[in-house]
Design a protein that fits this description.
4 helices; alpha+beta; six-stranded mixed β-sheet; globular
Length: about 120
C-alpha cells in the first residue's frame, strides 16, 4: 500500500491517493499539522512540482498494530524550480481489515523545508 501511495504522489494522481485512505483518515505533518487527506495533497501539489521518495528502511510494529514506518530521503522540486532534499519518516497506520490507510504521520526537520517553501511561494 505504501508503494502504491508513493507512486500515486509521484504521478500527482489525487483520485488514486484518496482511494487508498479511509474516509475519516487524517495526515499529520510538521508543516501542515493535522489535516484531511484531500486538502493536504492539494496543498502539496500546489507547492511542489515533483516529489520523489527514496526508501532507506521499512519497519513494522511488533505490538500487533497494523502499522509500518518508512525511513526515506525526500526530493521536492518546488514551483520556483529549486530542489530540496531532506530525510524523514512516514508512519502508516492501517484499518483493521488492512485495506485502507487510516492515518499517516510524517516526521522531518522543517528548518530547511519551511524556508525554501516560503521562498517558492513568494510572488516575484
Amino acid at each position: 500500500m505504501s508503494l502504491k501511495y508513493r507512486i500515486a504522489v509521484k504521478e500527482r494522481n489525487l483520485d488514486a491517493i484518496l482511494s487508498m485512505f479511509a474516509p475519516d483518515a487524517v495526515i499529520e505533518t510538521p508543516l501542515r499539522g493535522t489535516c484531511k487527506v484531500r486538502p493536504y495533497h492539494e496543498w502539496l501539489f500546489e507547492n511542489v512540482k515533483r516529489s520523489t521518495v527514496e526508501v532507506q528502511n521499512v519497519f513494522q510494529a511488533l505490538n500487533g498494530d497494523i502499522t509500518i514506518a518508512i525511513h526515506s530521503r525526500y526530493r521536492w522540486l518546488l514551483n520556483n524550480d529549486k530542489t530540496i532534499e531532506f530525510g524523514g519518516m512516514s508512519l502508516f497506520e492501517f484499518t483493521p481489515d488492512r485495506t485502507k490507510i487510516r492515518k499517516m504521520t510524517t516526521f522531518y526537520d522543517t528548518s530547511l523545508v519551511r524556508s525554501e517553501l516560503a521562498q517558492a511561494m513568494s510572488p516575484g
